[in-house]
Design brief:
By secondary structure, this protein is of the alpha+beta class. 20% of the residues lie in helices and 25% in strands. It has four helices and five strands, in the order βααβαββαβ. The strands form two sheets. It has a three-stranded antiparallel β-sheet, covered by helices on one side. The longest helix has 13 residues. The N and C termini lie far apart (39 Å).
Length: 152
């Protein structure tokens, strides 16, 4: 598997995410398929809260190449809205959806100007809570602010 570069906005982990994480039984977590996954804590509980602006950049891309497509950090106002999941063949991702118009703008500009290697073509800002075994994340899903688009 090839590794690519990404651009992320780091956040202090919100207390409600910590509480959800504490409530997840260990046996519901997806920890990976290999000993290396488990050793590197590649999956399970996400302990670094962030929103990925763009994933799949070639590692040769330098910050100076992309900085014109980024905003001052204070412009990335983010509102966390609903708890939902991404599902794939191996596991479910429990996440908090995020509304961050400037992150979406940056993603669109970078994607238009650089080759992006990702199977996910639509930008969906979110913070990952945990990687969970298939079918175990649904019980945590909750609409928090389903009308948030009207406020932006």
């Amino acid at each position: 598997m090839r590794d690519y570069a990404c651009i992320m906005l780091d956040y202090e982990q919100p207390n409600f995410i910590k509480e959800i994480q504490k409530s997840i039984p260990k046996e519901d977590l997806y920890l990976g398929e290999t000993d290396e996954d488990i050793k590197n804590n590649s999956y399970g509980i996400e302990d670094e809260s962030h929103i990925t602006i763009c994933y799949g950049l070639e590692n040769s891309v330098k910050f100076d190449d992309i900085k014109e497509y980024l905003f001052d950090i204070k412009k990335y106002n983010t509102i966390l809205v609903n708890i939902s999941t991404f599902k794939n063949d191996k596991f479910d991702v429990l996440k908090v959806d995020a509304k961050c118009p400037k992150a979406a703008e940056s993603n669109k500009s970078i994607s238009k100007n650089f080759e992006i290697h990702s199977e996910y073509k639509e930008f969906k800002a979110h913070m990952t809570i945990a990687y969970m075994k298939k079918g175990k994340a649904d019980k945590y899903c909750k609409d928090i602010l389903d009308k948030i688009e009207d406020m932006l």
